[in-house]
């Protein structure tokens, strides 16, 4: 590892060197900035360059440690922040031209927690308008590209985060997820993430003018996209630190009590009538075999009805969007995003008025069914998407496009409606006619047991390897 290759280090390896003093925060940050300037022009993952501030913060951290201050758990780790979350003095544009001058008065809890742990923000990453697409493009900052090639969407809405971290731009990438916005970019780019469960990570934007709808509050979560599962174990304990500005945050340790071995895993390939692509089928088999070899007891059994739960939950969310956001989308959104929302409302007919109240009540029924099921099966291994990841702008191609992008993604948004944690990890690199493409699977876990989902992701990664390595080899050539 040469001095110019520091950016290749995972956060776990990086902190071992920064906390021991073998590398300074300034050395790490300078190398990360150089990599960002090298890789980002082709990707447009980072849309606000914070190099100057990052280097100054690195000098401050080095001076503090030299003066006897303890190094934080993420000392010197370069990170990116998504542009829909408040960072003091920066625009929280959410990819919307009309919001480009909404300047955050203070840091959101996730930004504060990362910086308090010693992380250094090197840039802010792209998102689609209103952070409500599984692809990433907007009139304000333009399109983000996937480092694997332009035949694959980078995912969304945390598309800049996923593309950037897999290209080596920062060791950790902040993102968020209301229906899959951490897991879609992880799947698109071959990264690793865990969608935290309800209440695990404190969330609030000081710039917001009104509280979000109840489903937006209960389905949306903050998290991180990484290149390795170990980096989630390293970084998530800092991210979940309490913040009084989120009154519903649940203060619990990252790791829960160990369960008796063997841990039972429910394994399903049920795609509810959607065709299961052979490459996804192989990815699921590889993930299953990896867990068996790691000592898990994997049984093929379907969990409670994911299709009904997921579709009902997303229809309810669309009802809330129709009620609370439609005027903003019409007034400030581009023609593209307005047309996409029109199709969303066709794919997921909004549940409104009294029926919406009834569905909010029924949410507890679905959650209880899963809670009882997971008394026996602590984890559920399933597809994330039934097909390899879609091409850019697929969701602009009418009903069929939205159906392929979101209609079939019930394993994704069902977890948001249930409030359960779910990891997403690559388990295969497919050689498709369009080009190489990672295939991710999903691992859902019991409530409050994000750590178990990450443990299982690490077991799969141990079998498959980190997907960034073949990607960097491809990029280098």
UniProtKB/TrEMBL annotation:
> Which keywords fit this entry according to its UniProt record?
Hydrolase, Ligase, Transferase
| Protein known as | Glutamyl-tRNA(Gln) amidotransferase subunit A
- Any Pfam family the entry gives: Amidase
GO MF annotation, one: ligase activity
Q: Which residues form the Amidase domain?
A: 27-452
Under which main EC class is this enzyme filed?
ligase
* Entry EC no(s): 6.3.5.-
Organism the protein comes from: Ruegeria atlantica
């Amino acid at each position: 590892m040469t001095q110019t290759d520091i950016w290749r280090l995972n956060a776990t390896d990086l902190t071992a060197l920064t906390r021991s003093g073998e590398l300074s925060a300034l050395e790490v940050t300078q190398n990360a900035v150089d990599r960002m300037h090298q890789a980002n022009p082709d990707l447009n993952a980072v849309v606000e360059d914070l190099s100057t501030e990052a280097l100054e913060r690195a000098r401050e951290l080095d001076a503090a440690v030299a003066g006897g201050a303890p190094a934080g758990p993420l000392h010197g780790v370069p990170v990116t922040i998504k542009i829909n979350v408040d960072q003091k003095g920066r625009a929280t544009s959410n990819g919307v031209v009309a919001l480009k001058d909404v300047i955050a008065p203070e840091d959101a809890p996730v930004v504060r927690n990362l910086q308090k742990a010693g992380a250094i923000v090197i840039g802010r990453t792209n998102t689609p308008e209103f952070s409500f697409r599984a692809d990433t493009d907007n009139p304000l900052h333009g399109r983000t590209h996937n480092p694997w090639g332009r035949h694959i969407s980078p995912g969304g809405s945390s598309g800049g985060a996923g593309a950037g971290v897999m290209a080596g731009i920062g060791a950790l990438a902040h993102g968020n997820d209301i229906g899959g916005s951490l897991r879609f970019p992880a799947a698109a780019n071959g990264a690793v993430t865990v969608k935290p469960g309800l209440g695990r990570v404190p969330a609030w934007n000081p710039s917001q003018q009104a509280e979000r709808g109840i489903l937006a509050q209960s389905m949306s979560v903050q998290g991180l996209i990484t290149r390795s599962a170990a980096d989630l174990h390293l970084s998530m304990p800092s991210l979940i630190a309490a913040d009084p500005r989120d009154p519903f945050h649940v203060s619990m340790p990252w790791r829960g009590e160990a369960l008796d071995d063997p841990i039972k895993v429910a394994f399903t390939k049920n795609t509810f009538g959607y065709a299961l692509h052979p490459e996804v089928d192989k990815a699921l088999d590889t993930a299953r075999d990896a867990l068996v070899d790691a000592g898990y007891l994997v049984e093929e059994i379907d969990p409670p009805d994911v299709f009904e739960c997921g579709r009902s939950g997303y229809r309810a969310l669309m009802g809330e969007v129709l009620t609370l956001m439609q005027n903003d989308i019409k007034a400030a959104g581009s023609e593209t995003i307005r047309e996409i929302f029109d199709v969303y409302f066709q794919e997921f007919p909004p549940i409104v008025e009294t029926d919406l109240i009834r569905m909010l009540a029924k949410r507890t029924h679905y959650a209880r069914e899963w809670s009882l099921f997971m008394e026996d099966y602590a984890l559920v291994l399933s597809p994330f998407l039934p097909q390899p990841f879609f091409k850019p702008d697929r969701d602009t191609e009418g009903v069929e496009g939205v159906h392929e992008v979101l209609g079939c993604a019930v394993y994704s948004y069902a977890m948001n409606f249930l409030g359960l944690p779910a990891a997403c990890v690559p388990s295969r690199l497919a050689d498709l006619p369009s080009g190489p493409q990672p295939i991710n699977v999903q691992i859902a876990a019991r409530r409050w047991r994000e750590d178990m989902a990450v443990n299982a992701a690490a077991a799969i990664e141990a079998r498959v390897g980190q997907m960034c390595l073949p990607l960097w080899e491809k990029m280098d050539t």
